[in-house]
Structure formats: structure tokens, C-alpha cells
Design brief:
Layout lengths: L1 H15 L22 E4 L3 E2 L7 H17 L3 E3 L5 E17 L6 E16 L4 E16 L4 H26 L3
Parallel strand pairs: 1-3, 1-4, 2-4
Antiparallel strand pairs: 4-5, 5-6
Helix pairs in contact: 2-3
């Protein structure tokens, strides 16, 4: 009897942990047929902004790869993927927000990052996203040393940006 219960528990654990199925359709294309795909290629996203540190591109690219591996059943490949993502980081800026009356300093600063992304399906010759801009921001206390918190801010931005890209690419219109 214990063996039977153990088998059921293992079965439920294994089937409950399966990756969710998703509809692989060209983004924003309505009711088009699903596109067969088994692999995904995510090219390195170059940093084309003037202010971003050297780690921004690598951290963003890895975040997008990690998300796609975690939320799809597609195999991540370096080349010849059925679905290909490419693009660049074009905006990375800090601006003051929440300026206090009677002072010339802001209580908070805002780090904004914009990524332009292209997605296409090699098995179908169709374009999913073309030079699609995705932007995210995070506010932080202006008294904090930016260089000491930059990596955690980038992690927060990357989470927002990669989720938006995933939702747009595989979920259709927002």
C-alpha cells in the first residue's frame, strides 16, 4: 500500500511540474495558425546607450535566456533556432523624480531602460516583433550610492523587460 501511495505521489509531482503549454503564434497576428517550433535562439543584445555600464548587455541577454528556458519547452540553441530574438539596449538613463519643495535635489531618482527587440520564426518566414520597444523603470532613493545598487536595479528592470517581451511574443497583444 505504501508503494502505491509513493507511486501516486511521484506521478503527481512529475506531472504537476511540467512546463505550461503556450501558443506559439506571431505576436499580434490574431487567430493565425500556430507555428511549429522546437528551439529558440536569443542573440546577444548590444548596448547602444551612452550611459549603461558594460555589464548591462550580458545581464539582460542572460535574463531573457533564463526566462525563455524557464517558461517554455523550447530548447535554447546558439544558432539556427526556430524562433530567434535579437535586438539592442538603446536607452539607459537616470532622471530625478519626487523633487521636494524648497530644495534643488530629488528625493528619488529613476533608472529607465529601453530595449528594442526583433523576433522572427525561421520555420514560417513570418515576423513576430519588429524593432518593438519595451521600456521599464525603477525608482531608488537618491541618497543611495548608485554604483553599489546598480546591479540589483538592473535585475529588477530585466525582470520587467523580459516578462513584457515574453508576454508580447507568446501571448499576443497586451
Amino acid at each position: 500500500m505504501n508503494s502505491f501511495i509513493s507511486h501516486i505521489a511521484v506521478f503527481l509531482l512529475v506531472t504537476g511540474c511540467a512546463l505550461p503549454q503556450f501558443s506559439l503564434k506571431p505576436a499580434g497576428k490574431g487567430d493565425q495558425k500556430e507555428i511549429p517550433a522546437k528551439s529558440i535562439q536569443i542573440d546577444f543584445f548590444e548596448n547602444n546607450s551612452s550611459l549603461a555600464s558594460s555589464i548591462v548587455s550580458a545581464l539582460f541577454t542572460e535574463s531573457l535566456r533564463d526566462l525563455m528556458q524557464a517558461q517554455t519547452s523550447l530548447d535554447l540553441v546558439a544558432e539556427n533556432g526556430d524562433v530567434v530574438f535579437s535586438g539592442s539596449i538603446k536607452e539607459y538613463k537616470i532622471s530625478p523624480v519626487n523633487i521636494q519643495a524648497g530644495t534643488e535635489t530629488a528625493a528619488q531618482n529613476r533608472l529607465t531602460m529601453s530595449v528594442y527587440v526583433d523576433q522572427y520564426f525561421t520555420t514560417n518566414d513570418s515576423l513576430g516583433l519588429s524593432n518593438h520597444k519595451v521600456t521599464a523603470f525603477v525608482d531608488y532613493n537618491s541618497t543611495e550610492d548608485f554604483s553599489s545598487i546598480e546591479e540589483s536595479l538592473i535585475e529588477n528592470l530585466n525582470y520587467q523587460l523580459t516578462q513584457d517581451i515574453f508576454d508580447k511574443a507568446f501571448g499576443g497583444e497586451w
